[in-house]
Amino acid sequence: AAGVIQSPRHLIKEKRETATLKCYPIPRHDTVYWYQQGPGQDPQFLISFYEKMQSDKGSIPDRFSAQQFSDYHSELNMSSLELGDSALYFCASSHGLATYSYNEQFFGPGTRLTVL
Amino acid sequence: DAKTTQPPSMDCAEGRAANLPCNHSTISGNEYVYWYRQIHSQGPQYIIHGLKNNETNEMASLIITEDRKSSTLILPHATLRDTAVYYCIVRPRSQGGSEKLVFGKGTKLTVNP
Question: What is the mean pLDDT of the segment spanning A93-111?
C-alpha cells in the first residue's frame, strides 16, 4: 500500500540558510500534519492543513511557513536556520472527515535536518 | 500539554504479553484514547483507539476502565520488533484537520530475548 513520502530524507544546512521539506500524503488523504522531533524528545505538532487551508497551528516558529498545494502535497519552508532546528521532521496524513473509519494519522519516514 | 501519564519504561520477555498502562483521569466525554508507537527514529505508527468499549485488532487489545480514567494496551505475544516507545494520546475525534496528536513522554518498552 502507498505510504506517506517525504523528501529529502536527510538534509544538511548551514546556520542562516533556508530549507524546504516536502511531503506527499497517501492518495485520497486531504489532511497533512507536520511534527518536529528534537534529539531525545517527543514529537511536537507544528502545523496542519485540511483541503489546502491551514487548520491548526502549534509551536511553529515565525521563521517557518508551510502550505498545501492543489495536489495535496505540502511543503515546510524554513528560513534563517538555527542550530536548534536540527531535528527529525515528520509529516503525517489522514482523511479530514471523522466519518472515515479510523481517522488515524499515517506518518512518513521523516526528514533528518542537521544545521551546522 | 499531554493529558496522559505513562510509566517511563517497561521490560517484557519475548513471547509474553506486554501490558502498558495509561492514566487519563481528566478525559472528557468526547475524547478518544489513541495508542501510537515509535520504533527508533521511525515515524510513529498507529496501533489502536477506543472510546469506552474494549477494542482488539491484529496488533493489540485496548482495555478501557468503566470510568474511562485509565486504559491498558496489551500486546499479546511480544516480539523483539515490538521494542519501541508507546504513546497513549487522548483527543477528540473531530473533522476538518484539527486532530493534532499531542505526544507525552510515552513508555519505552524493551522486549528481551
Answer: 77
